[in-house]
User: What shape does this take?
Amino acid sequence: MAELRALNHETGSAPVRSLVSSLVHLHLSDIASLRLLAVDPEAGRLGLEHALLDAGLVNELELEHARAHMLNVPEIDAAAFEIDPRALVRLWWRDAARYGVLPLGMASGVLYVASPTPLQQGLEEELRVIADCVVSLVWADKSDIDRRLARENQAHPAATTASGTGEGNGLHLPQPALQDVHALVEVALKELKVWGVQEQVDAANESSGVIKLVNQMVMDAYEQKASDIHIETNQGDDVSRVRFRKDGDLEDYLTLPFSLRAAVVSRIKIMARLDISERRRPQDGKINFNDYVDIKLELRVAVLPTHDNMEDVVLRLLASSRPIPLPQLGFSDRDAAIVQRLTNRPFGLILACGPTGSGKTTTLHSLLAHINTDSRKIWTAEDPIEITQKGLRQLQVNPKIGVTFASAMRAFLRADPDVIMIGEVRDSETAGVCIEASLTGHLVLSTLHTNSASESVIRLLDLGMDAMNFGDSLIGIVAQRLVRSLCPHCCVSRALSHDEYELLVKEYIQGTSLSPEEGHRRLLAAASPAAEGAQSCISVRHAVGCKLCGGRGYKGRLGIYEILENDGDMRRKIQTRAPTSEIFAEASKAGMRTLRQDALEKVVAGQIDLKQARTVYA
Assistant: This one.
């Protein structure tokens, strides 16, 4: 109240920077009203600020404005202020709306933010944590801020919409995971216009819209359970395409303006510690995404030069670090019993074969998990180590320093192993060491890039393996494919007509010596219990699409298998170098379900549809 009394005795001298003078200067109150308040005894008891509020001379926001003015806090016009896009890299519209503030710009590493309450205790600190930089608050009118936020949010609705929080799956993703990637593209473009192309590339390892754009792409792929991210750049002004591989199929995710392609590729190269100046040769590397975002995820990076000095990037997400339990792989009861019997053998060679991405490594790790006990010493050599298990001793192959599969195998044999897994048989040297180890009392597991189990036998013999030793060492071969499983929430079942069923039986026995009666018996046995012995109850399902599967009709993937056991006459066929057709015929005669047959059995069991089944053998 002393300030009010002093004002009563002022005679036109220049006002001092006090709360009272600030109120008058800002036209929040007039001198006459303040003088009346100064002689009010009740006002003297309450104190200046409370008296002003109690008398209705100012409201809380006006009082905050006067306090800020008194302390020389800068003021801006929120309605007309031109916002620096770099500020939006730090503080998103969604966060700004939540706190009722307006991001303004960056200068010397400081983020300037407008607030109607710039002196509010804790506000500056909360914004600093979100923006991860120093924050300085200035004053702006609340109504102007609210109108500006409403206008910006209406112009950029995606920037305030959550794209997924990870709730329900145990994930606690950082703030950027809630942003829409299209808003990030817009921010990066605005930033590019401010900094220029070269500066944007050079700043790729500092805070920028491109950094958050790349992080968001990876996090979206992770949340959508994609296995790969494909970034395909094009010449001239053509847009770059970003696609995700989900459940084995590529799906469009985003198109990037041509002006962002260099910055995005450079950012990925920096994260993978690759040479950003090299554009003529392929490069590959790895990214530990946990260094940038709170997600335990590793990325394999392949950068490939294309025409006109462009570069494509493929990132493989290696998120699943635990082995899948054997019953969840998709083996039929019969095949599950066979693989368990094979892995319980004390020594010998087991191969998993199939094209890239068919789940061979996953299958081998599931087999290892089945036999991983305290009584066994298990060594693995992998490139890269995608799945980890407690109890396994795992070695990362690095050919650049001479650590190859073959050299690792020889080192393992000196370390008293019981079980050895080699990531892939790529050459005759590795194949020879694997066969040698399996013949000297070790169980050896490895993978091979072949199309079928019977072809794998011929491939190894063609590598120069001794047929007698190979025939004695081989226990079995698991050939496999991955297909998309039907979404259980929306798939529709349809009973087959007599003619359709007969065609299905013919398709099942094609290429084998099975009779139609045997094919009929096997399909009935694979169908639901209700169909046992009743052809009219055989039905198939097809995809429809719903919200739970994203309208695709499929959810997850399932393994299709054929298992060749090396016993009886099969060993003699291998040792006499019989052709593929004879090996296949012998395996089929012994009861092997081919990839085609396993796929069609899963069709009548309602797990997949005919379209997916035919991708295996068409």
Remarks:
- Residues 181-195 form the longest helix (15 residues).
- The radius of gyration is 34 Å.
